[in-house]
Amino acid sequence: MRNWLVLLCPCVVGVALHLCWLLLGGPGRRPAGPLASFPQWELKHYDVVVGVLSARHNHGLRNVIRNTWFKHLKQHPALSTRVLVKFIIGAHGCDVPVEDREDPYSCKLLNITNPVLNQEIEAFILPEDTSSVLSEDRIVSVNFRVLYPIVITSLGVFYESDGVGFQRNITVKLYQAEQEEALFSARFSPPSCGVQVNRLWYKPVEQFILPESFEGTIVWESQDLHGLVSRNLHKVIVNDGGGVLRVSMTGEGSWPHEFTEGVEGIAGGFIYTIQEGDALLQSLHTRPERFVNHLKNLEQEDALLKEESCAYDDIVFVDVVDTYRNVPAKLLNFYRWTVESANFDLLLKTDDDCYVNLEAVFNRITHKKLDRPNIWWGNFRLNWAVDRTGKWQELEYPSPAYPAFACGSGYVISKDIVQWLASNAERLKTYQGEDVSMGIWMAAIGPKRYQDSLWLCEKTCEPGMLSSPQYSPQELSELWRVKELCGDPCSCEGR
């Protein structure tokens, strides 16, 4: 009998470890399904679960946390068993090198092929069988995004095929997104109608390099009582130069209505050239080699993360490609994991570049009696304008301002809110950032908000602060060193 036990023990241990790895997930693989498919056991209770959003490559920040406030927590006689801390990491790295993405915040391939170089390109072309029809619309506009630098050399309008020449007064302007002043414009009139090319009249404009990620709107406006000769975007041929620009319409869910003046459509066109052509060709030539090296680096990153997870047992890998745009999805997946894996009262969310004082957090929970249902405790931004460009670009939330949302450096929500988020995770729409997404989600259920300015929104140091964001590993270490030495991370005056 003893021999059988000796043989079975390693198998049992191996099965247990494999099951644990499946439940927690691992880098580069798909985590297992919900715990409901396995026999249930009583979950350990924690007063607070701390979720630390962390990028895959931020090993240095995670190690600093493990050696500062996390280490202090583990050694604290009263708090060590009351708190569960987990780093939240996407199980999958982006398989597109940063240089080959449309922007550094997503995992979308910059799909430029056979670029048209060293020549002028007409952006819009009317099919031969398309007739010119005068519409009732006096203002028509179209939105576009630049994916590789271009220069617009001319703006144009559709001509009228009545054989009597150009008889209209039309102004064409180019606006940068969210800007009220036009970058440049062209005015067409009977005595000054420009040059006819194919089926458009063109006039040269002042030339500016429009950089990668530039977002603009071209507006055609009739100065007469008549409407414009215009077409629906789907009835013209768009020449994107091999993929260096993209034309978008509000109806396609890509642009908010405030970006559009008048009616969406095409009432002319523009001529452009691609800049830095040699650099583009070189980049396309070296792309295959870049992809091979990047995938090798991803494999190494997976191995390092697996080793880190096994060493510290403080990482939750969620089934998400780890990019900035996917941070809201990371958070929702972590909420689901928390509900399935722990019994708890409150959840604290923070980031891996944040200083956190958990002792102060617990003291305020007790003092303010925040350990109860339906609470959201943080430092809230109110009437925060929606950005339509840049890192925080949001094109799908239609309002000009977000609902109230807590700063991302730290906030606390009660268990019932986490359960609601977890149970609705598949239906909740994610937006550009996890903080604003959380505000939009919470607007649906209206929890009790507790405003507390000690959850700092900006990188600064204040006595008694609960959290502060945007620190490097060295700065976090120094903050904690000063706190340990003097009791106040901000200074040691009088000591």
UniProtKB/TrEMBL annotation:
Q: Name one GO cellular component term.
A: endoplasmic reticulum
Decide whether keyword Thylakoid is in the record: no
The pathway to which it is assigned is: Protein modification; protein glycosylation
Q: Which Pfam families match?
A: Galactosyl_T
Provide the membrane topology annotation: Single-pass type II membrane protein
Q: Which reaction does it catalyse?
A: 3-O-(N-acetyl-beta-D-glucosaminyl-(1->4)-alpha-D-mannosyl)-L-threonyl-[protein] + UDP-N-acetyl-alpha-D-galactosamine = 3-O-[beta-D-GalNAc-(1->3)-beta-D-GlcNAc-(1->4)-alpha-D-Man]-L-Thr-[protein] + UDP + H(+)
Which GO molecular function annotations are given, in alphabetical order? hexosyltransferase activity; UDP-glycosyltransferase activity
Signal sequence residues: 1-16
> In which compartments does the protein localize?
Endoplasmic reticulum; Golgi apparatus membrane
Q: Is Cell inner membrane included in the keywords of this UniProt record?
A: no
Give the E.C. number(s).
2.4.1.-
Tell me what this protein is called.
Hexosyltransferase
Q: Which organism is it from?
A: Pelusios castaneus
